[in-house]
Amino acid sequence: MAPKRPNEADSNKWVLGEYFRTDWSEIVESTGDLPVVLNMAALYEHPSRKHFSLPVREGESLRDQAARISALQQKQREADQIESRLHKTQQFNRKIELNQQLRSLKFEVESLSST
Questions:
Q1: Domain ranges across the chain
Q2: 64-114 pLDDT per residue, tens
Q3: Rounded to an integer, what distance in angstroms lies between the CA atom of residue 33 and that of residue 47?
Q4: DSSP E strands: which ranges in the chain?
Protein backbone atom coordinates (compact mmCIF):
# COMPACT_ATOMS: atom_id res chain seq x y z
CA MET A 1 0.00 0.00 0.00
CA ALA A 2 1.32 3.43 -0.89
CA PRO A 3 -0.60 6.64 -0.20
CA LYS A 4 -0.89 9.04 -3.14
CA ARG A 5 -1.25 12.80 -3.27
CA PRO A 6 -1.53 15.28 -6.13
CA ASN A 7 1.73 16.85 -7.29
CA GLU A 8 2.02 20.46 -6.13
CA ALA A 9 3.78 21.60 -9.32
CA ASP A 10 1.62 19.71 -11.84
CA SER A 11 -1.94 18.89 -10.84
CA ASN A 12 -2.18 16.22 -13.57
CA LYS A 13 0.47 14.06 -11.89
CA TRP A 14 0.43 12.11 -8.65
CA VAL A 15 3.19 11.56 -6.09
CA LEU A 16 3.47 8.18 -4.35
CA GLY A 17 4.33 8.09 -0.67
CA GLU A 18 6.32 5.44 1.12
CA TYR A 19 5.22 1.82 0.64
CA PHE A 20 3.72 -0.03 3.61
CA ARG A 21 3.36 -3.81 3.67
CA THR A 22 2.66 -6.72 5.97
CA ASP A 23 3.69 -10.36 5.86
CA TRP A 24 1.55 -12.84 3.99
CA SER A 25 -1.03 -14.57 6.10
CA GLU A 26 -3.31 -17.51 5.51
CA ILE A 27 -7.00 -16.78 5.18
CA VAL A 28 -8.36 -18.78 8.07
CA GLU A 29 -11.62 -17.01 8.69
CA SER A 30 -13.81 -14.50 6.97
CA THR A 31 -12.38 -11.00 6.90
CA GLY A 32 -15.77 -9.65 7.85
CA ASP A 33 -18.13 -7.27 6.19
CA LEU A 34 -17.06 -3.97 4.77
CA PRO A 35 -17.49 -1.05 7.17
CA VAL A 36 -20.42 1.29 6.75
CA VAL A 37 -18.91 4.53 5.46
CA LEU A 38 -20.10 7.60 3.61
CA ASN A 39 -17.34 7.94 1.01
CA MET A 40 -14.67 5.95 -0.81
CA ALA A 41 -11.81 7.58 1.10
CA ALA A 42 -13.11 6.17 4.39
CA LEU A 43 -13.59 2.76 2.78
CA TYR A 44 -9.96 2.81 1.58
CA GLU A 45 -8.74 3.99 4.96
CA HIS A 46 -10.20 1.10 6.98
CA PRO A 47 -8.15 -1.83 5.53
CA SER A 48 -5.13 0.39 4.84
CA ARG A 49 -4.52 1.08 8.51
CA LYS A 50 -3.75 -2.63 9.05
CA HIS A 51 -0.46 -2.10 7.21
CA PHE A 52 0.80 0.56 9.62
CA SER A 53 3.04 -0.43 12.49
CA LEU A 54 1.95 2.41 14.80
CA PRO A 55 -1.49 2.85 16.33
CA VAL A 56 -3.70 5.72 15.23
CA ARG A 57 -3.77 8.89 17.29
CA GLU A 58 -7.15 10.36 18.06
CA GLY A 59 -8.40 12.38 15.09
CA GLU A 60 -5.40 11.49 12.92
CA SER A 61 -6.02 11.07 9.20
CA LEU A 62 -4.48 8.35 7.08
CA ARG A 63 -2.15 10.86 5.40
CA ASP A 64 -1.02 12.28 8.75
CA GLN A 65 -0.35 8.81 10.13
CA ALA A 66 1.70 7.86 7.04
CA ALA A 67 3.70 11.10 7.36
CA ARG A 68 4.31 10.42 11.06
CA ILE A 69 5.55 6.89 10.32
CA SER A 70 7.88 8.20 7.59
CA ALA A 71 9.26 10.87 9.92
CA LEU A 72 9.73 8.26 12.66
CA GLN A 73 11.70 5.98 10.33
CA GLN A 74 13.87 8.91 9.21
CA LYS A 75 14.62 9.89 12.82
CA GLN A 76 15.49 6.29 13.69
CA ARG A 77 17.93 6.11 10.77
CA GLU A 78 19.54 9.38 11.90
CA ALA A 79 19.81 8.06 15.46
CA ASP A 80 21.46 4.84 14.23
CA GLN A 81 23.99 6.86 12.20
CA ILE A 82 24.83 9.11 15.15
CA GLU A 83 25.15 6.10 17.44
CA SER A 84 27.64 4.45 15.09
CA ARG A 85 29.61 7.71 14.85
CA LEU A 86 29.55 7.94 18.64
CA HIS A 87 31.17 4.50 18.99
CA LYS A 88 33.86 5.37 16.42
CA THR A 89 34.74 8.78 17.84
CA GLN A 90 37.57 8.98 20.33
CA GLN A 91 37.52 12.69 21.20
CA PHE A 92 35.60 13.36 24.40
CA ASN A 93 34.15 16.71 23.33
CA ARG A 94 32.83 15.17 20.08
CA LYS A 95 31.28 12.33 22.06
CA ILE A 96 29.44 14.85 24.23
CA GLU A 97 28.03 16.62 21.14
CA LEU A 98 26.98 13.35 19.52
CA ASN A 99 25.43 12.12 22.75
CA GLN A 100 23.34 15.30 23.03
CA GLN A 101 22.17 14.91 19.42
CA LEU A 102 21.37 11.25 20.04
CA ARG A 103 19.37 12.09 23.18
CA SER A 104 17.30 14.71 21.35
CA LEU A 105 16.66 12.32 18.44
CA LYS A 106 15.56 9.58 20.84
CA PHE A 107 13.17 12.05 22.48
CA GLU A 108 11.71 12.89 19.04
CA VAL A 109 11.36 9.18 18.22
CA GLU A 110 9.51 8.61 21.49
CA SER A 111 7.16 11.54 20.85
CA LEU A 112 6.41 10.33 17.30
CA SER A 113 5.77 6.74 18.38
CA SER A 114 3.52 7.57 21.34
CA THR A 115 -0.24 7.76 20.90
A1: 4-113
A2: 888 898 899 999 999 999 999 999 999 999 999 999 999 999 999 999 988
A3: 11
A4: 4-6, 14-16
